[in-house]
Amino acid sequence: MQKPYVIDEMISAKSIAARLEELCREIHDEFQGTDKLVVVGLLRGSFVFIADLVRELDLPIEVDFLEASSYGDGMESSREVRILKDLRGAIEGRDVLVVEDIVDTGHTLHHVTGLLKSREPARLKTIALLDKPSRREVDMKADWTGFEIPDEFVVGYGIDFAQRNRNLPYIGKVRFT
Ligand code: PRP
User: Does 131 contact ligand 1 (Cβ within 6 A)?
Assistant: First the structure.
């Protein structure tokens, strides 16, 4: 049985949108001129972030998805990253932007970037909406980060708690009652 909890707003939808605009300006500068950018969303957590991100990018892009999982329905990372769904397209010689919702222990992004680098893209960059540096277990940092947050259990804007609350339009903090 799930313990009862409430969700306190931590980062508003408005703050996320404002930060996204800033990040997209930087991404735009990095990738301007390319006609071979593939934006890769890591499922499932990044589905809201990538949807907003690509609509803010004025670049010719393709979108692809990769599903990695290390948490299942639990709150602790298993540290064993499984690829549940691979990319549809080849990325050799392409520019790639990997979109992640949150970097926690870092195992997921570390594993995924290692895998994608082995496919020899021309350029591989990463963006994470949230970063919890205090939880890091491997040396990993996204090239762009939306917000650094403390070690709180967060949900919303794509991020789940036992598969719930992904549809909240803001980032909230879980508080058990
Ligand atoms: C969550 C989250 C990140 C990853 C971050 O994914 O979406 O991908 O964990 O944690 P890490 O830095 O400790 O590896 P999860 O495995 O829960 O799958 P989901 O995206 O389907 O929710």
Answer: no
